[in-house]
Amino acid sequence: MRLLSSKSVCLGLAAALSATGALGAGPFADFGGTWKGAGRVSDVHGKSEALTCKSNNSPQPDGIAMTLTLVCASDSYRVDFRAELYTDGQALRGTWTETTRDATGNIDGAIRPDLINAITTAPGFTANIAIRVTGGKRLDVTLNAKGTNVNHVEVAMKR
Questions:
Q1: Which residues make Cβ contacts (< 8 Å) with residue 2, sequence separation at least 6?
Q2: What single DSSP character describes residue 128?
Q3: What angle do CA 128, 132, 135 make, to 5 degrees?
C-alpha cells in the first residue's frame, strides 16, 4: 500500500518546513541552514512508514523573507517542495509549490524565534503544522492533515 499517495500531505509538510529558515537576523534566524533527518508518516488506517528529509532554508538579507526547499522520501513516496515565506515578525504568510505533483497553495500562521505555527491550504486540503527549533541544533516538524489519506507526519532533523 502506498501510504504517501496524497500530494496534499506532502505539500503541507513541505510548506511547513519551508517556514523554517534564516541564518541572519530576524524571526527566521534559528530556522536557517541545511537540516537532515528522519521521521514517520501515518495514514487514516493507522499504518505508518519511515521517512527521510532534507531541507535547505535560505533567509533573505532583509530578515523578513525566506526561501525553503524540502525533499522527503520513503520507499513509496517522494516530495520536492519550494516555499517563499514572509513575516512582519509575528504573522507568517507565503506560497508553496510541489513540483512532483504540480500543486500550489498558501501558508498562513505565526512565528516566534523558536516556533512556527501555520496552516497550509490547497484545494480540498488543510494541514496544521508546528515547527520547533531546540537549541539551534534540532528542528522538529509535526503535521496534522485533513482531506487526505495521510493524516499525521513527524520529522526530527539536525544541522
A1: 76, 77
A2: E
A3: 180
Three-state DSSP string of 53-114: EEEEEEECCCCCEEEEEEEEECCCCEEEEEEEEEECCCEEEEEEEECCCCEEEEEEEEEECC
Would you kindly state where each structural domain of the chain is located, as residue ranges?
A: 7-158
Q: How far apart are CA 44 and CA 64, in angstroms?
A: 36
Whether the model clears a pTM of 0.85, i.e. scores above it, the answer is no
More confident residue, 9 or 42: 42
**157 vs 159: CA distance, rounded Å:** 7
Q: Are 36 and 53 in contact (CB under 8 A)?
A: yes
23: left (phi over 0), alpha (psi -120 to 50) or beta: alpha
Residue type for position 112: R
Using an 8 Å Cβ cutoff, are 95 and 105 in contact?
A: yes
Is 69 within 8 Å of 85 (Cβ atoms)?
no
User: How confident is the model at residue 38, as a pLDDT?
Assistant: 97
CATH second-level architecture of 7-158? Beta Barrel (2.40)
